[in-house]
Design brief:
Elements (H helix, E strand, L loop, with lengths): L3 H10 L22 H12 L5 H11 L2 H15 L3 H8 L3 H13 L6 H9 L6 H12 L3 H8 L2 H11 L6
Helix pairs in contact: 2-3, 2-4, 4-5, 6-7, 6-8, 6-9, 9-10
The structure holds calcium ion.
């Protein structure tokens, strides 16, 4: 199963879909008691396999403002001499848009990438699913609910629809 880090990595190759015309929605408030150096260390551990990669990445991506992410970049770069993370942190302007895109890609075309779909839907406790739904609707002009309805079947569909909540098309 691909990790979130793989997802972010693949984003490097397709940043255009995230050049987020997202307005204020999805804007993250600065975290209080923020320490860029500490975050950079946490990210480094996560990326180098010493920590829980997905949780750390999601936590930092969803709970730091863009100015704070900029500072993390600088701290990370200083500590590791690597620039790649900076690029990632900067291009993921809107985390909800990023996850909306992941959901779309998981259902697009024939078949369903259930592992991605499950992972994004289930991580909703840390990322506001309402924001993801709004971004989904904005990007693709139909609701996440409709996408699930038409792509999935049986109990799997019922479960996902329940997690998804309301239908933004109605
Ligand atoms: Ca499909």
């Amino acid at each position: 199963m691909a990790s979130l880090w793989d997802d972010l990595d693949s984003l490097v190759n397709t940043p255009s879909s995230f050049s987020a015309k997202t307005g204020d929605r999805g804007t993250i408030k600065p975290k209080a008691g923020f320490d860029a150096g500490e975050d950079a260390v946490a990210l480094r551990k996560a990326i180098e396999g010493l920590g829980t990669t997905e949780k750390t990445l999601i936590d930092i991506l969803t709970h730091r403002s863009s100015a704070q992410r900029q500072q993390i970049c600088e701290a990370y770069q200083e500590a590791t001499g690597r620039v790649r993370l900076c690029y990632l942190l900067k291009c993921v302007k809107s985390v909800p848009a990023y996850f909306a895109e992941r959901l779309y890609q998981s259902m697009k075309g024939g078949g369903t990438d259930e592992s991605t779909l499950n992972r994004v839907m289930v991580s909703r406790s840390e990322i506001d699913l309402l924001d993801i739904r709004a971004e989904f609707k904005k990007l693709y002009e139909y609701s996440l609910h409709s996408a699930i309805e038409s792509d999935c079947g049986g109990n799997y569909k019922k479960t996902l629809v329940k997690i998804c909540g309301g239908d933004d098309d109605s």
